[in-house]
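step=encode ok
step=design start
structure_in=
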């Protein structure tokens, strides 16, 4: 479709003029006509190529963003699972007066770390040793069959901690046996991001009673014959004296006896979490907010090509209240998916037509006698250019505007527009746009047409949803005004791209397996429910549901059956609740149930017992008859807490007591339950 000014030029060139020297005027016009046609054609060619390229890039960008966010969520979810595994080790100490070496070994073996928790280097226990008891402690450990045992590094300190249990007790882990992690402030280790990074994490865990993550360290497990020394970090949970009060900071500091912990080698951990899943993506992880060689913990592309990637993004991950910065970029294998063929076809065709038009105009200037033949040939090529525009992938519609700028009559409608709108051009040309497409008013396009006609400034409209009785879909419109006064709308159907964006948003808030809300969404709904309960002075309830005997199903029948079981559990949970209630999956076999409004505690107990009964019924899945149950802990606002953190913590404590009470039962939180470490 030739620009309007060129059409007027051609028409003027063939119509006699009243100018006293028409030949000179025509000669002047013809002289510059080839350059003008070339310039306009190349501009249009560039716009068409750029538009086609942007569409291809936007589609691949959406695909990249989706994969990047899913990779970040997988890391956060897997680290939450590892935290729960460490809580299980803490529970071993809470359930025993003292844990012997063989008991710790047996428990760690039962966890099957390498199969169930890939990337974990092990689980261990570090004991606090007062200076006056140091020699007696060393002698006791040596009598257990470790004659070379000692606390290292050597030296006198106000307090010692010693790794006395660490499983699996293999060659790599034995290097940490007897190590005083609390000493790294006075005796820093090479490769640590800062002095005292272990000690700082141990103190945070001790003072808060929660899990704490260290910054970047070089683990003692790194061996001299390793081809590549990996960065590492440690996760700690405090162990207090059983039965001791822990309500205040002073009480927690006075009653600490040690820490259970898990060391991680970063490359091994990432290979266990996202290896194979993030194919085509280069992933770098940094400790904290600083992005530098000093803070880099993992770089999947350290042997990369060095080519600048097309796509980059930065995600901030919250790992046990510790921030990691995740930098993700595309690799050549991912970028190879970019559709480069269509933009190149458009560019080649348009350039070819531009050169043809320019050549014909040059012939017109060279041989004035062939002006009429050249004009006819140019008209033929104009038709070819119009045909090319008709085959554009983007829809094009032209409108004649009423004098008051309120009504728009369709004057042109290309094949792409026919395909997108599922209607022929013969059915729309000559008709008012609102008559054929009544949805333009609701989607805002009609007002955009009026604004552009009024201002003369082209406008890219926001992506909006079009719907009428015949079709529906998401549209992206670009509206401009021609010099002749007509309005042109160039648009694309971006429904697939919008659906991909919606899917990315869904994956950020819902569990992909069970389609239940995830930890992020349930936390938001809890906060909303709390705000409403406080405002209306009503009660709400929170339940912590933990499946009993789920792990044996996973171990014996495989993860596929385990996944089917979790999906069926999600359905039964929803069947037990009102439409206003929410069930969320927060971990491997852990769920949270939110009842935003209840009259009294018994209302929550009724729902919890209903859930217990539903999950106690056999499951018929994949040819297996499976029997599990659940332990439910209940916390009620305002009796059991006034914040999200308190209610979740107290529901978790109540669930623990339900487990200890024989499983398959419901416990409502009571203050005396807090004596559990």
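sequence_out=
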């Amino acid at each position: 479709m030739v620009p309007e000014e060129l059409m007027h030029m051609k028409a003027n060139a063939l119509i006699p003029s009243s100018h006293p020297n028409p030949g000179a005027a025509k000669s002047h016009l013809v002289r510059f006509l080839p350059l003008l046609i070339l310039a306009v054609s190349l501009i249009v060619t560039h716009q068409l190529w750029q538009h086609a390229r942007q569409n291809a890039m936007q589609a691949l960008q959406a695909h990249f963003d989706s994969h990047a966010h899913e990779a970040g969520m997988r890391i956060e979810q897997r680290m939450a699972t590892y935290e729960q595994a460490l809580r299980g080790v803490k529970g071993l100490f809470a359930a025993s007066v003292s844990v012997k070496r063989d008991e710790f070994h047996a428990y760690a073996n039962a966890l099957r770390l390498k199969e169930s928790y890939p990337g974990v280097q092990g689980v261990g226990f570090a004991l606090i040793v007062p200076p006056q008891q140091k020699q007696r402690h060393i002698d006791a450990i040596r009598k257990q069959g470790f004659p070379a045992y000692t606390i290292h590094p050597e030296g006198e300190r106000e307090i010692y901690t010693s790794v006395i249990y660490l499983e699996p007790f293999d060659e790599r882990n034995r290097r940490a046996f007897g190590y005083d992690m609390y000493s790294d402030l006075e005796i820093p280790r090479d490769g640590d991001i800062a002095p005292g990074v272990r000690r700082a994490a141990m103190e945070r865990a001790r003072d808060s009673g929660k899990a704490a993550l260290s910054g970047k360290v070089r683990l003692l497990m790194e061996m001299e014959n390793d081809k590549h020394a990996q960065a590492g970090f440690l996760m700690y949970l405090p162990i207090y004296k059983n039965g001791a009060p822990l309500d205040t900071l002073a009480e927690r500091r006075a009653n600490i006896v040690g820490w259970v912990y898990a060391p991680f080698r970063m490359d091994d951990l990432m290979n266990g979490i996202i290896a194979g899943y993030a194919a085509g993506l280069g992933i770098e992880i940094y400790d904290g907010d600083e992005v530098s060689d000093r803070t880099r913990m993992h770089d999947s592309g350290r042997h990369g090509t060095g080519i600048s990637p097309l796509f980059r993004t930065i995600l901030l991950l919250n790992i046990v209240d510790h921030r990691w910065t995740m930098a993700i970029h595309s690799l050549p294998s991912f970028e190879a998916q970019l559709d480069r063929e269509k933009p190149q076809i458009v560019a080649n065709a348009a350039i070819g037509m531009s050169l043809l038009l320019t050549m014909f105009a040059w012939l017109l200037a060279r041989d004035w006698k062939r002006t009429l033949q050249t004009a006819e040939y140019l008209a033929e090529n104009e038709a070819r250019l119009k045909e090319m525009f008709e085959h554009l992938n983007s829809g094009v519609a032209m409108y004649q505007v009423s004098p008051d700028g309120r009504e728009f009559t369709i004057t042109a409608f290309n094949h792409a527009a026919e395909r997108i709108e599922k209607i022929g051009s013969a059915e729309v040309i000559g008709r008012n746009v609102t008559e054929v497409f009544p949805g333009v008013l609701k989607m805002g396009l009609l007002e955009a047409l009026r604004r552009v006609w009024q201002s003369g400034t082209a406008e890219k409209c926001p992506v909006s949803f079009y719907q009428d009785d015949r079709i529906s879909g998401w549209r992206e419109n670009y509206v401009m005004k021609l010099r002749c006064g007509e309005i042109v709308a160039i648009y694309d159907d971006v429904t697939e791209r919008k659906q991909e964006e919606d899917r990315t948003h869904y994956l950020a808030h819902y569990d992909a397996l069970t389609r239940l809300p995830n930890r992020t969404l349930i936390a938001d709904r809890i906060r909303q429910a709390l705000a409403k309960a406080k405002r209306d002075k009503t009660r709400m309830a929170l339940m912590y549901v933990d499946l009993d005997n789920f792990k044996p199903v996973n171990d014996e029948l495989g993860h596929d059956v385990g996944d089917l079981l979790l999906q069926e559990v999600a359905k039964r949970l929803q069947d037990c609740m009102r439409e206003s209630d929410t069930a969320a999956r927060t971990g491997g076999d852990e769920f949270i149930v939110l009842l935003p409004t209840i009259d009294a505690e018994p209302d929550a107990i009724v729902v919890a017992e209903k859930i217990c009964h539903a999950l106690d019924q056999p499951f018929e899945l994949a040819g297996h008859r499976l029997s599990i149950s659940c332990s439910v802990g209940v916390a009620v606002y305002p009796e059991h807490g006034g914040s999200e953190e308190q209610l979740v913590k107290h529901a978790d404590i109540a669930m623990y007591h339900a487990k200890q009470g024989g499983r398959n039962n419901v416990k409502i939180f009571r203050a005396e339950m807090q004596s559990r470490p």
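step=design ok
step=annotate ok -> The radius of gyration is 35 Å.
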